[in-house]
Specification:
The structure holds two protein chains of two kinds. By secondary structure, chain A is α+β, with helices and mostly antiparallel strands. Chain A has five helices and four strands, in the order αααααββββ. In chain A, the strands form two sheets. Chain A has a two-stranded antiparallel ribbon with strand order 1-2. Chain A has a two-stranded antiparallel sheet with strand order 3-4. The two termini of chain B are about 30 Å apart. Classes of the chains: A alpha+beta, B alpha/beta. Strand 4 of chain A pairs antiparallel with strand 6 of chain B.
Amino acid sequence: MNALARVGVVQLLGRRIIGLLGEDFRAMPMQERQRYAMMATRPRAMETAIDEYEPAVASNATFQSYTIRKVAQVRGKTKPAGRMLLVRLTCLLLPQQPRGGMTNMIVIAI
Amino acid sequence: MAGLFDRYLPPGQMIRVNNHHLHIQRVQHDGTTVIFEAGQAGFSLDWMLVQPEVSRFAQVYSYDRAGLGWSETGPKRRTPQQVVAELHAMLTAAEVPMPCVFVAHSMGCRYSRLYAHQYPEDVMGMVFVDGYHEAFDIALGEKKQRIF
């Protein structure tokens, strides 16, 4: 995407996108928000996202065979791994999430 | 592009990986290593509000995958294996202390899982935030996948 188109996207959609972001993000200085918007829409960002997504989908079958190790050394002792905890929490910090929005968080202690 | 990068200088270091440079930012020098992995089309600044909070008790790194944020474009084929190989090379070159805890968002969770599979001794834990799973694509179906 050339610079003019990029600026156009930011001008057209930037306010709407930023409107969807959290209050913490909107409260940040304009300069910081501008830096985020400009770097997020840098040249080739969209192409890169597509280049990443297609092989990721293509590798779905392989991915199901990927595992994490079953035991771990924690402070010198062998502990069972793979304990998972699903937490639903109100996310106030991630800029992608609207304030008060729910997000899934899975914690895996290996 | 040079103009954009002149205006917004990289907040972290540029690390050479093969024929391109990747951007990594470290906050705090002590404690457990925590590596932030952004979601699809995301980059290090996605964590700019989280990183300072976590850096109160951990050594925190965020980075940009090739072609995103301040990182240079890498080889065209962006397979998960390629992304993870570049991440491992960058962490090694940057001398990031291991093992680490990955904190990943969306598509980034996939890369963290693969990293933990390929380098099990380097990963002591993972936190998935709205994690992406292959079952999502299967549920979505091929037609909707293309739209997505």
